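Example (one chain per record):
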Amino acid sequence: MSSQRTAATKADTDPVRQPRAAIAPAARSAGGFWDTVRTILFAVIIAFAVRTFAFEPFNIPSGSMIPTLLVGDYLFVSKFSYGYSRHTVAFGYELFDGRLLAGMPERGDVAVFKLPRDDKTDYIKRIVGLPGDTIQMRNGVLYVNGTASEMERVEDVVISKGPGREIRAAQYLETLPGSDQPHRIIHEDMDGPLDDTPVYRVPAGHYFAMGDNRDNSLDSRVASAVGYVPEENLVGRAEYLFFSLAEGTHFLELWRWPWDVRFGRFFEPVI
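Predicted structure:
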């Protein structure tokens, strides 16, 4: 009996066993907190790397690229297509100047770039002029280096001009000189203020960008608004759509999705 009581007493007062039982839950709690912090940190690093070096999602807020891109489209832009500059770094961090691994856009690419006048606002347009090109609009037809783009009239499209107001616009398949890839454009008329322009000569290291909605696009034709796009301002090339909502529907209005999601536009390439 004496030996049993002594063993029990030693066990009850063991200075090693009691602290282990007391601190184990706290240790596990602290380890779980830091595991969560590390997981979040790794997720942020991965997101930063993907958005800087691979792909970044954008959504379309205006109709300047109709019919190629519609208001409410969501698309991925490849960052590696034209190389990297301070404008391609995710979340707006300015880590370096100049451009690394620079690549030249092809005439006809749909590209995202930073608006030259503020270097902050994202614009998306079609690159129609490369460095050294001459660009001019004549009677609604785009001329590149003196050669007219091919235009084939196709079915008209109905576009919204505000609540309760719709109009029909002429739609064309346009093929740029030197290209064999047609894309769609629209014209409300062929004698708008931007349908006849002087000749623009694209400077070295710059590009000329235009919207596919030719009569409703502020682009390189308007020097005070956009003008020539510096190579450094290129963000990336639009690749494909991954989601689309009807105009006027907010992404978080989930209850409207069954009626307003444009399923037919999912995973469509941007051409």
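Caption: Residues 5 and 271 are 87 Å apart (CA to CA).
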